[in-house]
Design a protein that fits this description.
The structure holds 2 protein chains of 2 kinds.
Chain A lengths: L3 E4 L2 E4 L5 E7 L5 E7 L5 E8 L2 E5 L6 E7 L2 E6 L8 E8 L9 E2 L3 E5 L1
Parallel strand pairs in A: 2-11
Antiparallel strand pairs in A: 1-3, 3-8, 4-5, 4-9, 5-6, 7-8, 9-10, 9-11
Chain B lengths: L4 E3 L2 E5 L4 E6 L5 E9 L6 E6 L5 E4 L2 E6 L4 E6 L8 E9 L5 E2 L3 E6 L1
Parallel strand pairs in B: 2-11
Antiparallel strand pairs in B: 1-3, 3-8, 4-5, 4-9, 6-7, 7-8, 9-10, 9-11
The chains are: A mainly beta, B mainly beta.
């Protein structure tokens, strides 16, 4: 069984479109995250949710809107896609908040905006 | 701006060699230090999370140490094998911030 899954794995779209990436974890974790791997290969946190509640919102354009229907799911919706949004987006989960527990990462979604 | 520095950036060793990498981080308000292993085309996989100064963790041939007072952690791999080839990421958590990742050390082990 896949612990943290993301769909789709690849997403190619044009500038100005709206797209969503879905994430699900079956580990029973309380906290889920979205990370962006930028062009310099750094992993940077975007959002963190604990039991469906937003607890971390880093400096991310408001075109990015996470939604957590329940604690096992955290989806990422992106409006008006721009070229600079091209990146690999990773979902992750952990036992609880505070970053003192290991993160379990999904396989990543490679987003290409043309 | 909080920086997590990893060195070397890349490393090539022969099978059987032992090796180590360094992760440097700010020493103030320390909460946790993570190490992850990231194989090409896969997702990062947790190796260790350390929270106390002097912590030492071990998993098979891989071990890690932590010095929070001087702000560094070492990752050691004993007797490197080709399957150890990967990028090794460290990530630092300081009070009031989120988890901040370094750029990683890419290890290549040839047989």
């Amino acid at each position: 069984d896949t612990a943290v899954s993301q769909t789709p794995k690849y997403l190619v779209t044009q500038m100005g479109n709206d797209k969503s990436i879905k994430c699900e974890q079956n580990l029973g974790h309380d906290t889920m995250y979205w990370y962006k791997q930028d062009s310099k290969k750094f992993l940077k946190i975007m959002f963190s949710y604990n039991n469906k509640e937003l607890i971390i919102n880093e400096t991310v354009p408001n075109r990015f809107s996470p939604k957590s229907p329940d604690k096992a799911h955290l989806n990422l919706h992106i409006n008006s896609l721009e070229l600079g949004d091209s990146a690999v987006y990773f979902c992750a989960s952990s036992y609880t908040t505070g970053f003192t527990y290991e993160q379990y990462f999904g396989p990543g979604t490679r987003l290409t905006v043309t | 701006i909080l920086n997590v520095e990893q060195s070397p950036q890349s490393l090539h060793v022969q099978e059987g060699d032992s090796t180590n990498f360094t992760c440097s981080f700010p020493s103030s308000n320390f909460y946790a230090l993570h190490w992850y292993r990231w194989e090409t085309a896969k997702s990062p996989e947790a190796l260790f999370v350390m929270t106390l100064n002097g912590d030492e963790k071990k998993k098979g041939r891989i071990s890690a140490t932590l010095n929070t007072k001087e702000g560094y952690s070492y990752l050691y791999i004993k007797g490197s094998q080709p399957e150890d080839s990967a990028t090794y990421l460290c990530a630092f958590y300081q009070a009031g911030t989120a988890l901040i990742f370094g750029k990683g050390t890419t290890l290549s082990v040839s047989s």
